[in-house]
Amino acid sequence: MGRKPTVNLNLPPRMRARKRWNKIHYYYDWGGNPRREEPLGPDFVLAVKRWSAIEETQAPRATQPTFKDAAAMYVREVLPTKARRTQTDNLKELVFLRELFDDDVLLDDIEPTHVKQYLRWRHKKAVAWYAAKNRVSPPNAGHVRANREIALFSHIFNNAREIGLTKAANPCVGVKKNTEDGRDVYVEDDLYVRLYEKADQPTRDAMDLGYLAGQRPQDTLRYDERDIRDNFLAIGQGKTGKKIRMEVTGELKLVIERIRARKATYKVVSTALIVTETGQRMTLRTLQYRFRTAREAAGIPAKDWLF
Predict the structure, then answer these.
(1) What is the C-alpha separation between 274 and 304, in angstroms, rounded?
(2) CATH fold for domain 199-304
(3) CA torsion sign, 108 to 106 to 109 to 120?
(4) CA atoms of 289 and 66, how far apart (whole Å)
(5) How far is C-alpha 246 from the geometric centre of its chain's CA atoms?
(6) In this structure, are strands 243-247 and 232-236 parallel, antiparallel, or unpaired?
(7) Fold entry, domain 60-180
C-alpha cells in the first residue's frame, strides 16, 4: 500500500486530500510504483463512504471482527440514514475513535475500562491543543467532545451486535460520562479559530466570554461590571432563570482585564463588559450582524455554525 502520510493525518488510512483547482479533492491511495490514486470526489462525506467501500474489499477479514470492521460497516450502512450535518460530525468523531481503537482492536476485547481510558485520553488531547495555542485550558477541556465520540462508539458497537459481528456486551454501559454544565455548543476548533481570526475585537470579546462561561449570546451580552463581586461573576440565564457564579480566574480573568483595558480608552464609559468601539453596550442585533460578517469572511457556511 501507499507510504505513510506526513500531512492530513486526520484522514482515514490510505485516504489522501489534494488541492485541485482551488478546491480539495479526496483520493484512495493504492500505492504501487508508479503510485495509483483513485478519485473519491470533493465531498468529504461521500468520499469517506467510497473509501469505506474500497476498504471492505481489501484483505481477508480477520477471524474475529475488529472495531475497524464495525466502524466501516456503520459508515456504509447506518451513516447514510442520518442528517447531513450529523454525518459530517460523526466522521470527524470517528477520526479520534480510530486513534485509540485502531485497526487491530478486537470488538470482543473492548471493556468498560477502555472506554474510561478514552475519556481521560481525550481530555489530555484537548489540554495539549490549548497548550499549543498558548491558551489556558479550562478544567473540562474535551469533555463534551469525548461524550459525543463515546456516544458514536456506543452506536457503532450496538450496530455490530445487531448484525452479528459480536455477542459481547456494550462496554459503554455503566461507564460514567463527563458532566456537562449548562448549554454546550458543539463547534469544531478549526471553525472557531477561522471565525475568530476574521472577527472584530468586540465580537472576539463576546466569543471569548461566551465560550469560557458556556452561555448563550444574549446572556453573554448582559454581563456587567456590577455583576463581579468578591472575584466572582454572577451570571443569570434569561431562558431558564438559573443563577450561577463563576470565579474570575485563569483565562476568564485575562479576558476581562483585556476588555477593561480597551474600555478605558473610550470617552463613554459603560458598565457592560461587551461594548462596541464607541464604548456603548452591544445589542444582540449588532452582535448577530458582526458574527455573520465574520462567518462569511472566514468562508464558513451558515449551516455549519448557526448563531
Answers:
(1) 25
(2) hpI Integrase; Chain A (1.10.443)
(3) negative
(4) 48
(5) 24
(6) antiparallel
(7) DNA polymerase; domain 1 (1.10.150)
Q: Could you give the strand order of the β-sheet that contains 232-236, starting from the edge strand earlier in sequence? A: 228-229, 232-236, 243-247
Picking from 170, 199, 215, the residue whose alpha carbon sits closest to that of residue 298 is: 199
CATH 1.10.150 domain extents, the chain: 60-180
State if pTM tops 0.85: no
| CA–CA separation, 15 and 10 (whole Å) | 10
For CATH 1.10.443.10, list the domain ranges present in the chain: 199-304
pLDDT digits (tens, 9 = 90+) for 94-119: 999 998 887 788 898 899 999 999 99
Can you state the angle between helices 143-162 and 112-132, rounded to 10 degrees? 140
- Beta strand 36-41 with 232-236 is unpaired
The b-or-e profile of 146-161 (16+ CB within 10 A means b, else e) is: bbbbbebbbbbbebbe
Instruction: Read off the pLDDT of residues 196-227 as tens digits, 9 standing for 90 and up.
Output: 889 999 999 998 888 777 677 788 898 999 98
Q: Smallest Cα–Cα separation from 206: which of 155, 257, 255?
A: 255
